[in-house]
Fold Transcriptional regulator MraZ.
Amino acid sequence: MFMGEYRHNVDEKGRMIVPAKFRDRLGSSFVVTRGLDRCLFVYPQDEWSKLETKLKDLPFTKKDARAFTRFFFSGATECELDKQGRVNIASPLRDYAQLDKECVVIGVSNRVEIWSKTIWEDYFAESEESFSEIAENIVDFDF
Protein backbone atom coordinates (compact mmCIF):
# COMPACT_ATOMS: atom_id res chain seq x y z
CA MET A 1 0.00 0.00 0.00
CA PHE A 2 1.17 3.51 -0.79
CA MET A 3 0.69 6.25 1.79
CA GLY A 4 2.31 9.47 2.86
CA GLU A 5 3.21 12.85 1.37
CA TYR A 6 6.66 13.81 0.11
CA ARG A 7 8.14 16.97 -1.40
CA HIS A 8 10.51 16.65 -4.35
CA ASN A 9 11.73 18.64 -7.34
CA VAL A 10 11.61 17.95 -11.05
CA ASP A 11 14.95 18.81 -12.64
CA GLU A 12 15.51 20.52 -16.01
CA LYS A 13 15.57 17.12 -17.75
CA GLY A 14 12.19 16.09 -16.31
CA ARG A 15 13.57 13.70 -13.70
CA MET A 16 12.16 13.37 -10.21
CA ILE A 17 13.35 11.30 -7.27
CA VAL A 18 10.75 8.71 -6.30
CA PRO A 19 10.36 8.46 -2.52
CA ALA A 20 12.38 5.50 -1.22
CA LYS A 21 9.30 4.07 0.53
CA PHE A 22 7.54 3.75 -2.85
CA ARG A 23 10.34 2.25 -4.93
CA ASP A 24 10.06 -1.41 -3.89
CA ARG A 25 6.29 -1.51 -4.35
CA LEU A 26 6.50 0.17 -7.77
CA GLY A 27 9.01 -2.41 -8.94
CA SER A 28 11.44 -2.19 -11.81
CA SER A 29 8.78 -1.05 -14.29
CA PHE A 30 5.60 0.94 -13.69
CA VAL A 31 3.10 3.11 -15.56
CA VAL A 32 2.66 6.88 -15.32
CA THR A 33 -0.43 8.45 -16.88
CA ARG A 34 -2.68 11.48 -16.70
CA GLY A 35 -4.73 11.46 -13.55
CA LEU A 36 -7.76 13.35 -12.46
CA ASP A 37 -7.60 16.86 -10.97
CA ARG A 38 -4.43 17.76 -12.96
CA CYS A 39 -2.12 15.27 -11.28
CA LEU A 40 -0.32 12.18 -12.58
CA PHE A 41 -1.24 8.66 -11.55
CA VAL A 42 1.56 6.12 -11.08
CA TYR A 43 0.68 2.41 -11.01
CA PRO A 44 2.77 -0.69 -10.35
CA GLN A 45 2.35 -3.19 -13.20
CA ASP A 46 -0.03 -5.45 -11.27
CA GLU A 47 -2.39 -2.57 -10.44
CA TRP A 48 -2.15 -1.23 -14.01
CA SER A 49 -3.19 -4.65 -15.33
CA LYS A 50 -6.26 -4.69 -13.07
CA LEU A 51 -7.24 -1.20 -14.17
CA GLU A 52 -6.65 -2.02 -17.83
CA THR A 53 -8.99 -5.01 -17.53
CA LYS A 54 -11.73 -2.85 -15.97
CA LEU A 55 -11.38 -0.17 -18.63
CA LYS A 56 -11.49 -2.73 -21.44
CA ASP A 57 -14.88 -3.81 -20.12
CA LEU A 58 -16.36 -0.33 -20.53
CA PRO A 59 -18.84 -0.18 -23.44
CA PHE A 60 -17.08 1.45 -26.39
CA THR A 61 -20.50 2.48 -27.68
CA LYS A 62 -20.73 5.02 -24.83
CA LYS A 63 -19.20 8.39 -25.66
CA ASP A 64 -17.94 9.02 -22.10
CA ALA A 65 -16.29 5.60 -21.94
CA ARG A 66 -14.46 6.24 -25.21
CA ALA A 67 -13.37 9.71 -24.09
CA PHE A 68 -12.10 8.50 -20.73
CA THR A 69 -10.16 5.54 -22.09
CA ARG A 70 -8.60 7.73 -24.81
CA PHE A 71 -7.56 10.33 -22.26
CA PHE A 72 -6.22 7.74 -19.83
CA PHE A 73 -4.35 5.41 -22.21
CA SER A 74 -2.99 8.03 -24.61
CA GLY A 75 -1.05 9.61 -21.76
CA ALA A 76 0.26 6.37 -20.32
CA THR A 77 3.93 5.56 -20.48
CA GLU A 78 5.93 2.72 -19.02
CA CYS A 79 8.76 3.99 -16.82
CA GLU A 80 11.75 2.67 -14.92
CA LEU A 81 13.86 4.10 -12.12
CA ASP A 82 17.44 5.07 -12.83
CA LYS A 83 20.31 4.17 -10.48
CA GLN A 84 19.62 7.27 -8.35
CA GLY A 85 15.95 6.32 -7.85
CA ARG A 86 14.66 8.90 -10.32
CA VAL A 87 11.93 8.63 -12.91
CA ASN A 88 11.99 10.60 -16.15
CA ILE A 89 8.54 12.10 -16.62
CA ALA A 90 7.61 12.61 -20.27
CA SER A 91 7.16 16.21 -21.38
CA PRO A 92 3.43 15.89 -22.27
CA LEU A 93 2.75 14.51 -18.78
CA ARG A 94 4.76 17.30 -17.13
CA ASP A 95 2.81 19.83 -19.18
CA TYR A 96 -0.54 18.29 -18.24
CA ALA A 97 0.25 18.30 -14.50
CA GLN A 98 2.05 21.66 -14.71
CA LEU A 99 5.19 20.21 -13.16
CA ASP A 100 7.94 22.75 -13.52
CA LYS A 101 10.01 22.50 -10.35
CA GLU A 102 8.46 21.76 -6.95
CA CYS A 103 6.10 18.82 -6.71
CA VAL A 104 4.31 16.73 -4.13
CA VAL A 105 4.27 12.94 -4.30
CA ILE A 106 1.51 11.23 -2.36
CA GLY A 107 0.58 7.62 -1.70
CA VAL A 108 -3.07 6.81 -2.36
CA SER A 109 -3.53 3.12 -1.47
CA ASN A 110 -2.90 1.27 -4.76
CA ARG A 111 -1.29 4.16 -6.66
CA VAL A 112 1.04 7.12 -6.31
CA GLU A 113 0.05 10.61 -7.40
CA ILE A 114 2.42 13.37 -8.52
CA TRP A 115 1.16 16.92 -8.13
CA SER A 116 2.49 20.38 -8.86
CA LYS A 117 3.13 21.89 -5.42
CA THR A 118 0.88 24.86 -6.23
CA ILE A 119 -2.02 22.74 -7.55
CA TRP A 120 -1.75 20.34 -4.59
CA GLU A 121 -1.81 23.16 -2.04
CA ASP A 122 -4.87 24.71 -3.68
CA TYR A 123 -6.63 21.35 -3.92
CA PHE A 124 -5.75 20.44 -0.34
CA ALA A 125 -6.97 23.78 1.04
CA GLU A 126 -10.28 23.44 -0.83
CA SER A 127 -10.79 19.82 0.19
CA GLU A 128 -9.70 20.34 3.79
CA GLU A 129 -12.60 22.71 4.36
CA SER A 130 -15.13 20.09 3.30
CA PHE A 131 -13.30 16.92 4.42
CA SER A 132 -15.93 16.03 7.06
CA GLU A 133 -18.76 16.60 4.61
CA ILE A 134 -17.06 14.54 1.92
CA ALA A 135 -16.49 11.68 4.36
CA GLU A 136 -20.09 11.81 5.51
CA ASN A 137 -21.33 11.62 1.91
CA ILE A 138 -19.24 8.67 0.77
CA VAL A 139 -18.63 6.27 3.63
CA ASP A 140 -19.42 5.39 7.19
CA PHE A 141 -16.02 4.95 8.83
CA ASP A 142 -17.62 3.69 12.05
CA PHE A 143 -14.93 5.24 14.28
In short: The chain has a mean pLDDT of 93.
